[in-house]
């Protein structure tokens, strides 16, 4: 394998939202350096358009739910693809793509296997048996993984603590924010016009999939708990819980206004519409949307889960609340809405911390370092890191 120009397969289950954005930004940074990148995804959305100029292969059998027939089909097809194309590196993202993709890469004899942990498929809200099963699978996958890239410090710590992979194989990365997507700086007035919001009303916003992980029902509950008819809540994103969240939004107190804006391709340009950005997730890696909100100077209230505290430091760069406590989420939001000077202080400190660590160059550097082989071939079963 040469290190001058690599043939890289980037494999992701859903080419959308957090994991998809990190995969895309990494692929773009590598392509700009002359590497040949192929993106393989089970499904995708607007990111498919952003990937123009790179090869994208859709593999519909690669999907999130456990489906043995589809999983086996995806494994066979990816193994054949990797064997036929002779990739130097297979880099997987997300749990399903991480399992199927790494197994296929191992079967095909790919020289370098890298996985990114954006979070984990196991969490405290599962049954103990399911959680144990996921941990066991990840430990097995760790034996055939050369390097694990972890989005945020807490994700790295959890991977090491759980024994998912040898400690020397773990590297911490930050989420990438593409600076040119925020320049020139988006206008608050234009952002509100796009969302059909009045210029003067206080707005609390969230961005993410309408999924169990993101807990959008807690966002709705927090907006109702504010008891502030002057405040508008806005959620940008779509997902499997869309119908349920629409029903919940209709059922809240008539004085509570909630706007479900759906999936948007221009999220960074819409963030300045918010007076407070919030994310009530049950579990996370390190969401790109939080960092983008900070870049835009929007104060953040989030749940104290996984790697979120890497960037949201309580009382310094934002406020944190426990997950599954929409009452405390509402209290923290009200605190910032009623104290604009404090909100501005937190937002300013947060904006100042988003430096070169969150750029495409830093991510591309980290990827090239992860793809670089060690000085000698390894036996992955005995020493899974080089």
UniProtKB/TrEMBL annotation:
Residues 188-351 form the Glycosyl transferase family domain. Residues 18-174 form the Glycosyltransferase subfamily 4-like N-terminal domain. Keywords: Glycosyltransferase, Transferase. One of its GO terms (molecular function) is hexosyltransferase activity. It holds the Pfam family Glyco_transf_4. One of its GO terms (biological process) is carbohydrate derivative biosynthetic process. InterPro entries: Glyco_trans_1, Glyco_trans_4-like_N, Glycosyltransferase_grp1. This is Glycosyltransferase family 1 protein. It comes from Amycolatopsis panacis.
């Amino acid at each position: 394998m040469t290190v001058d120009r690599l043939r890289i397969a980037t494999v992701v289950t859903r080419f959308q939202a957090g994991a998809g954005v990190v995969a895309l930004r990494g692929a773009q940074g590598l392509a700009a350096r002359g590497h040949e990148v192929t993106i393989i995804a089970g499904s995708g959305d607007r990111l498919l358009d952003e990937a123009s100029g790179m090869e994208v292969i859709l593999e519909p059998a690669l999907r999130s739910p456990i489906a043995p027939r589809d999983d086996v089909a995806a494994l066979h097809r990816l193994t054949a693809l990797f064997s036929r194309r002779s990739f130097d590196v297979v880099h997987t993202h997300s749990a399903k793509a991480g399992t199927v993709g790494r197994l296929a890469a191992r079967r095909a004899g790919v020289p370098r296997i890298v996985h990114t942990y954006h979070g984990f498929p196991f969490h405290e809200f599962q049954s103990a048996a399911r959680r144990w099963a996921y941990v066991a699978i990840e430990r097995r996958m760790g034996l055939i993984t050369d390097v694990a890239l972890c989005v945020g410090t807490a994700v790295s710590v959890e991977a090491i603590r759980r024994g998912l992979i040898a400690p020397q194989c773990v590297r911490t990365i930050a989420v990438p924010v593409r600076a040119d997507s925020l320049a020139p700086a988006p206008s608050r007035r234009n952002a509100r016009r796009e969302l059909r919001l009045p210029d003067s009303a206080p707005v609390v916003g969230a961005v993410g999939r309408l999924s169990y992980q993101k807990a959008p029902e807690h966002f709705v509950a927090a907006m109702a708990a504010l008891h502030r008819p002057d405040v508008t809540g806005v959620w940008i994103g779509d997902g499997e819980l869309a119908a349920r969240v629409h029903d919940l939004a209709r059922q809240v107190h008539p004085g509570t206004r909630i706007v479900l804006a759906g999936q948007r391709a221009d999220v960074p340009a819409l963030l300045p519409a918010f007076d407070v950005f919030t994310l009530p997730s049950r579990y996370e890696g390190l969401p790109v949307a939080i960092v983008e909100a900070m870049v835009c100077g929007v104060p953040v209230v989030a749940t104290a889960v996984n790697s979120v505290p890497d960037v949201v430091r309580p009382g310094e760069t934002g406020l944190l609340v426990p997950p599954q406590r929409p009452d405390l989420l509402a209290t923290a939001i009200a605190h910032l809405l009623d104290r604009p000077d404090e909100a501005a202080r937190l937002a300013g400190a947060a904006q100042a911390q988003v430096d070169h660590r969150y750029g495409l160059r830093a991510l591309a550097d980290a990827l090239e370092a992860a793809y670089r082989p060690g000085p000698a071939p390894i036996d992955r079963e005995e020493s899974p890191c080089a």
